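Technical annex B. To support the medicinal chemistry partners, we prepared a structural model of the target in complex with FO1, based solely on the information shown next.
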Amino acid sequence: MRIAVLAGGIGGARFLLGVRAWARAHDAEVTAIVNVGDDVTMHGLRICPDLDSIMYTLGGGSDTERGWGRAGESWTVKEELAKYGAEPTWFGLGDKDIATHLVRTRQLSAGLPLSEITRNLCERWQPGITLLPATDNKLETHAVLAPSGPLEPSAKDVSGARGAQGAIHFQEWWIRYRAEIPTETFVFLGAAESRPAPGVLEALESADVILVAPSNPVVSIAPILAVPGLRAALVGRRVVGVSPIIGGAPVRGMADRCLAVLGVPVTAEAVGALYADFLTAWLVDSGDTAEIDGVKVVRAPLWMTDEAATVAMVEAALAC
Ligand code: FO1
C-alpha cells in the first residue's frame, strides 16, 4: 500500500510519526510532500524549517519540546553573530542545526536540486519515509503588511528590501513579530514559476490514499497547493484531510492568526471547506461538527498526545 502525505512542519512531523508507525505495521510505503514556503536564507545559509522539522523528528534528533531544531542544542554561533551585530539576531540558529544548513547551502551552490539534497541529508537521519520538497524551485511565503503597519522605518525584511506596501518574509512575521502586525495577505513568491519536484506527481498518482496532515492551512498546506499541477493532481483521488483546528482553536502554532488574515473562520468546518474541491473525507475532532458539500465528515479524537493516539487518528483517516 502507498500513502502520500501533504505536510508542513511541527504538526506535520508529529502526524507523520503516526503514519510511519501505521505503515510499518501494515507494510506500507509513505512519501511526505513537504512545504517549502517557510524556507529562508539567513546569514548566507539556506534554511528549510519544515523539511528539517520532519527529518529531525522522524530521525530522532529533534527537540520535542521546542518543536523545531535539534535536541541538546547550543547557541554559541548565534551569540557570536549577535556580538557582531549581524542581523537578523531574532532568528534562532542552533550550532548543530547550522551544520545541516551548511551542508544544504554548499550542495545548492554546487547546483544540486533541493530534492536530491534532502535525500542526501536523510541518508544520515533515516526518517523511514521518503521526504520530497513540494518543489525544487525557490518558493517563499511573504506577509504583505497593511499600509499602517507599525514596522519601524529602519526595519527591512530578511531579503533586505521591503515591497512597495511593505512585505516581510514569513519567518520574520512569525518569529520577530509573532503575527502581531497588521497584515493584508500572504503571497507565495515564485509559486507561479515553480513545478512539482521530481517524484511528487508520481507519488500522488501511485498513492492508494493521500492524507493532508493537520498542518497550518494558510502557510503550510496552501504553499504546497500553489505549485502548478499539484492541486489538480488531487482532484478525483482518495484524499483524506485532518483538521488542524480543534474546538475553534489551533492545536499549536498560530493558524488562527493566519486564518484571520484571510478572513477565514477558525473552525474545522471552514478549514475543510478550503480543500473541498479535492477532499474525499475530512476528519474533525470528536467534539466538533462540520458540514461540507460533497465531503464526508468523520469525527475522531484528534489530539496527538502520543504516537498511539496519532496511529488511531491515521486508522480513522484510512477507514474513510
Ligand atoms: N521558531 C521560532 O519561534 N523561533 C526561532 O528562532 C526559530 C528558529 C528556527 C530555526 C530553524 C528552523 O528550522 C526553524 C526555526 N523556527 C523558529 C521554527 C520555524 O520558524 C517554524 O517552525 C516554521 O517555519 C513555521 O511552521
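Notes passed to the chemistry partners:
Residues 10-25 form the longest helix (16 residues).
The two ends are 15 Å apart (CA to CA).
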